[in-house]
Amino acid sequence: MQVTFDKVRRRSNAVLLYLVLAVISLLSVVPFLWIIFSSLKPYDELYSKHLTFFPRHYTLVNYTTMFERMVGFDYYYRNTVLVSCGTVILTLFAGSLAAYALARFRFKGDQVILLIFLGTIMVPGEVGLIGQYELLSSYRLLNTLTGLTLSYTAFNLAITIFIMRGVFASVPQELLDAARVDGCSWWESFWQIMVPMGASGLAASGTLVFLNSWNEFIFALTMNNWTDEARTLPVGIQLLQGQWQHWDYGVLFASVMLSFLPVIIIFILLQKYFMRGLTAGAVKG
Amino acid sequence: MTTAGENKKSRGRRVWNLDNPYVFVLPAVVVFGTFAVYPILRSLYLSFFHYEFLRPDQMHWLGLGNYREILQDERVIAWSGIVTPQGPLSLWQIALYPLLVLGLTINTPGGAFWNTIRFTIMYVPAAIILPLLLAVMIDRAGRLSTLFRTLNFIPIVVSVAVISIIWMWLYHPEYGVVNTFLRGLPGFGEGYNWLSDPKLAMPAIVAMCVWHGLGFNMLLYLVGLQRIPTELNEAALVDGATSWQAFWKVRLPLLKPTMFLVGLLSAIGALKVFGQMFIMTGGGPGDSTLSVVLYLYNIAFRYGKFRFGYASALAWALAAFIFLVTLVAFRVTRERE
After folding, report:
1. Which of A45, A179, A233, B161 could form a disulfide with A80 if both were Cys (CB 3.0 to 4.6 A apart)?
2. Closest to A263 (Cβ–Cβ): which among B20, B158, B211?
3. Are the C-beta atoms of A173 and A240 separated by less than 8 Å?
């Protein structure tokens, strides 16, 4: 009797646990589903007093209107992809090379360089906003993708070096010694040993940097906000919101949905690296 | 190539030897120095000057003048102090009087500094506790834990800008989900003007931020939970502790470092809050959601004068404050242990 009672209690506890978790998880995704379903609703359903979650009639009209009328959206998309990918490539290249040197070599000034890199992690990036604006303006890099990419690269370098230095420091010395005996230069052993050995660390910091640059707002808003040719998605979407909110927000929903869907899909595919990168990034402090 | 490489290394003095740690750090040092260190130091330098970007000829030394102006700027430092409830109180209001005063005080808008502080005070406790509960549940969810973890993590990969826009529509007074939902319940009438009511705008933004950061903090807790050896928990259970006691007495104390990390990261992030206010309320209604970074952004780029000197001083004052908070947090936890 006692045993079955215990069993029932344990099972009902488990059911309760799953139920609570399901509700919380639903709350995490419902806003996105709301946007997705709303973007598929016709005009009169969006502005109806009796809102429904699922559309009564499905339509793609918001998407076709968006592609016809929303000039700029294609630029925002292209710019965000270019800047994010450019930042990831530059940061991983420069960052891991520096991390390799700082993890594996003793040379004059290495401690100072390391201290400067890691010390800046503590300084909020916003502090550099005004200096950055002036700098980019004097080099005519405002409203260019190059300028934004360089600025993102700089602000992601410290954390990348921090992560990769840890990864490279844990590569066994014997591997490097063996390569050295075989006649590899340091440069060659970087590519042939360090990069393959640190692949998962590189993937993790790569996804962290990608996410940082894909979502970055205040620098993009400050540096690249004069022309549509230079705007990134977060800034552009915010602008479209201002222009379309009183007009037809189904179209706005379509653009918002297109801006978050790829990241969510990439995240679900690469979630292992995302989570590792983000936690590694968090522990920096 | 092989022997040549060795020879180069052994001679070591050749100028064009690229196989050298200095060469390896060079790209990072150049980019970082130019686009991170220089702008930060330049901002510090500018903070001691009267400097409007469009009138560089009028730039002149002010010393601490900009910092003194901050202390006199009503839009930064205004604060109504402790706020007590007005009028006759009901019984439960008397019973919960201290809480009522605390709530009223925190939810009374002031200058940018106070608004940033009250945003942080509202955000951080929720950002510490709710993800902890979620993580503990997910940790026990067995096979389904990956699914729940993934679902709850989704919001954090979407940018603040997009999240803010989505929530503006959720909060929309007429067509928003929140009010549609409330209209279905008794006692809420037509719902609320979430973002245009000075009493509701800040809590509404805080709620969104808690939702947005939930998955990330949950993940930090899950990492922390995994670091705790399962034997400890089992030993407690064998000794006759209930699973509740085992959690409270064994695992929670071991999670303290993670709670500290979550709290500190949340506080630092909260003190720098910008995008949410910029997009959703523009700092309004009134100045009720004006944050420090939003104010300095407006000073530098919105109000037409491009007052880079004063804005830089605001930025550095905030950075100093964040540094102070970090320092105090580390001190306090170290003394406790």
Report:
1. A233
2. B158
3. no
